[in-house]
Structure prediction request, 185 residues.
Amino acid sequence: MNFEEYAAKAEVLKPAAIPVLPSRLCTSPDAVALAFEEIGPCVIKAQVPTGKRGKAGGIRKADGVAEAVSVARRVFGMSIDGYTVEKVLVEQRAEIVREFYAAVLTDFADCRPLALFSHEGGVDIEEVAAKRPEAIRRWPIDLERGFGAGDCRAMLAGSNLGDIEGAVADIFQKLYAAYRNHDAE
Prediction:
């Protein structure tokens, strides 16, 4: 099952107490204008169940309501990886200080969950994986033991996270709990 970003945030991440930015799902430029009035400077994100939305031009910043409407008009109707954009997420813009990549996925070869982390997160994580696989930490998760605080800290050790290491570990534990609670693949 592929989630669109808005659904993953609203139905999986937010209920799992994983922090998400304020946002509104919109199906028209007029709705984007109203959302901007509520949220302010934002990022308008095409909602299709695929990656590479940013590289396709489906994720754009807006500083004013007129710009938000103009961006939305360009994004609505785009085709991204064979999907037509019919919805956008208007999300509050945050200053990006550092980007990380964190995932819990099913390692089908070992028949168990696998936690992945990289301090080189962002749009090109696939490129990081191909060119510098050592930049992605992998932690096989024992289904009976789970993924506790000690496991998180061991996986993150040496990542130079400083005083945010505990918060990242906490989010990772919540991410694993959401993975288990939703029988994710």
DSSP finds six helices and nine strands in the chain. The two ends are 8 Å apart (CA to CA).
